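Narrative of activities, Objective 1.

The group set out to show that a structural description can be obtained from nothing but a protein's sequence at a throughput compatible with the screening campaign. Below is one input-output pair from the validation batch, recorded exactly as produced.
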Amino acid sequence: MSIASHALSARRTPPFVHFAWILPLGIAVLLYIFRDSLPWATAYPAEWRLPIADWIGAVMQWVIAVFFNVTRAISALLQLPLNFAFGLLSKGFDIGPRASALHIPPLSWIGVTAAVVITGYAYGGRRLALGTGLCFLYLALFGQWDSAMLTLGLVLIALPLGVAIGLAIGIWGYRQPRVNRWLILPILDIGQATPQFAYLVPMLMLFGNNPSSALLATLTFAVPPMVRATVLALQQVPAEIQEFGRMVGCTRRQHLWRVLIPSARPLLMVGVNQVVMMTLNMVIIASMIGAGGLDYDVLLALRALKVGAAFEAGVAIVLLAIVLDHLSQAMARWKPGFYQPGRPFLKRHPYLIFACAVLLATTGLGLLIPAVGRLPDSATITTAPIWDASIKWITIHYFDNIEAVRIWLLLHMLNPIKAFLLSLPWASVVLLLLAGGLRLRNLRLGLLVVALTLLIAAVGLWEKSIITVYLCGVSTAIACLIGMPIGVYASRNDTAERVIGVIVDTLQTIPAFVYLIPAVMLFRVGDVAAMIGIVLYAVTPAIIYTEHGIRKVNLGLIEAAKVSGCTRRQVLWRVQLPLALPEIMLGINQVIMLALSMDIIAAMIGTRDLGQEVFVALAKADPGRGIVAGLAVAFIGIVADRLISAWSATVRERFGLSAL
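Output recorded for this entry:
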């Protein structure tokens, strides 16, 4: 926008509009001062509440009653590929009558490991092959093979379904921009802001406690990144390539599958990688409704206070995530060779043939030598006693110090912030958000955040929502205080950037549930352990966006600052950080989203917020309660996202970066 258009806009805008935010701010302050005299403004009146949870529960009961046979048929249909995958990797197959059934064993652990090594070598060379092989050897040697194969089987079925569904919806959104803007994107925003556990309750009610429910919950959670990546990838195909496809006479279908999709392949593969990681994260959580697998082992171990067993299963989850992440990234980078007509199948796919041959040979050999088919328990090792003893030793020798830190954090930081936020009248909070929306953008934003906040109060979840905001807010602040300096250091030191990049990539592959293990090991259950788990899980965007934002600053501006006599510190504080602020604020936005997601999982270790509502709904099979709690978390995330995005846009305009 030019300077003239800015001036014209300023003349057309009435002056009072720029100061409209002061009125709700002043009223909010007055309500806080006189909160004791206005009980209706302090605590949301019970008679104003809307029984939305009961309405949703009634609708769900009606849906279950009417469509019971349909949902169970869908569940049974999805169970077929799942049973095949579980049988192939973990359980084997029984053929014939149950009394005299012929048992066909699953694929040999040696064969599966070799197949993974061959795949890694085919797409990433020796280094990837060695890494994937060592990770799968850990699964076998530490007795995690069966559980890991159940998790892997569910991932292998969910992944192609998630990619196909996301690709189809993304193509639809690309071809219908209005549908994408007014239907698909709002649904994706709500879906991605809704916590993982909220997906479990309706799936459990509709499809029962079985792996099919876990598969459907996983697909619901993992599809949105593929939809966004597909729309963006197709939109970024150069116009010249699109015109060339039309000039050579491609039909609409040919233009899509032979021009647009191949040209958009790099970004589409990024979406596939995101589906892989989202699928694994959700599969881990969905094990609670019938999928089984590694996460269920971690949950049982933590409930029994077997920290060593939980740690070993947690490491197995991390290694499986690393293998899937690195393989998917290698496949995304891999460039296929030119197709040669008449070339034999064996020569076109040598690695595939070799992997299948190894699988068949080792599985057949396992019939003769059982140790080849399944590693005996006597050959496995465990470090669980060592970890249990280490925790016991730390508890004995450092209990007083750890407990002192925990109590200090509770008494001097967490509890005071929590008490202050709970003392705020709900009406004051609503008006403050209105003032923020008016100040940062316009009335439309202010009304949006007010409507979402009022809905949270109207469903009776105000206090639990405030506790969620308190825990996520504190965790976000700490994560930013840790992550931003690390990001600054990485941006100013190339060696540090490479080392920190490896650590960050590893942290991003770790499923959220695993972060709770060290927190519980040292600080027991409660808000402190939950805060530490949230910080560990949410710190990575603060590092990535800070480093990326500073490195994106124009080198000419940096050189101009140096020529004008600025020291290195002045260049950082007066040039780089101000210009990188929009990127940094986007990183803060991502930290908040991850904190909200992790906060729900942290309810497993004793928090009393919206996450507890979701868990109670899951335990009581109450879909209305679970969906409403999940939507409340989503609304908190949307409010934070919209306000921070508006703030980021304001900063960009201030520094003349709106066109970048």
